[in-house]
Design goal:
8-stranded mixed beta sheet, about 20% strand, about 40% helix, alpha/beta
Length: about 240
């Protein structure tokens, strides 16, 4: 089977990492390697990851796009999954990735994400995020939509072949947010982007911190600006939450 590397771009994730480590340890089959690319954490993120046996890389300057690029460059195998530290995978995730990527026309894919916390599941926001996978490219890149473009984001635990990622130049290192959606657009030049019908569960910390209405307004504001061509300073519209 093709070797699979899980790349975790992280910044100050000591609270989320223990759960992520337990989740990865329960995967069957296991990934071939796990790389955590740290963007300058001031907490115990690097130490916790190292104790878990992850390969830890420090990336400077920081930025999730740069961290993803660095992690993919360091990956030893042909398949890569980008996993956020607050996203939980199904037990057979590695098997699913390998099976999906056996289809030559698929160049990038991701799981269906459900936002949930200790107290509730954010069904409305999760449903909107699911729908956005289709309507966003249809609205902003209709010519690519009909060629197989779908917009995936970090919560989807997206995965791809390392060679395809490198062929399109990876993530734009200047983008602080929307780098995954931008990657989906670029990857469509090589094949189709898919959202598969298997679930991952992502911490609802942003929605919990902002409230449902504000969270969806923030997502819409950033998404619309990106759709109309904005690239720089989008991160200013997307407050960090830990």
């Amino acid at each position: 089977m093709s070797a699979l590397t899980i790349v975790i771009p992280a910044l100050d994730e000591e609270k989320a990492l223990p759960r992520t480590i337990r989740n990865i340890a329960a995967l069957d089959p296991q990934p071939d390697e796990v790389i955590l690319v740290d963007g300058g954490s001031t907490d115990r993120t690097r130490e916790i990851a190292s104790e878990a046996g992850f390969k830890v890389i420090e990336q400077d300057p920081k930025g999730r796009a740069r961290q993803i690029n660095r992690g993919v460059a360091e990956a030893q195998g042909p398949l890569v999954m980008v996993l956020h530290a607050d996203t939980m995978l199904p037990e057979d995730a590695c098997k699913v990735v390998r099976e999906v990527m056996e289809e030559p026309r698929t160049v990038l894919a991701g799981f269906t994400a459900i936002l949930e916390g200790d107290r509730q599941t954010r069904w409305i926001t999760s449903l909107h995020n699911w729908a956005k996978t289709w309507y966003a490219p249809l609205l902003f890149r209709p010519h690519l939509f009909f060629r197989g473009c779908r917009l995936l984001f970090g919560d989807h635990a997206m995965f791809f072949r390392k060679t395809d990622f490198e062929a399109v130049g990876g993530c734009d290192p200047e983008m602080m947010v929307m780098e995954e959606a931008d990657l989906c657009v670029k990857m469509t030049a090589l094949g189709r982007v898919r959202l598969i019908d298997r679930l991952v569960r992502t911490d609802d910390r942003r929605v919990a911190a902002w409230g449902g209405l504000k969270a969806n307004l923030v997502y819409a504001n950033v998404g619309i600006r990106w759709g109309f061509g904005a690239r720089k300073r989008l991160g200013d519209k997307y407050p960090d939450v830990r």
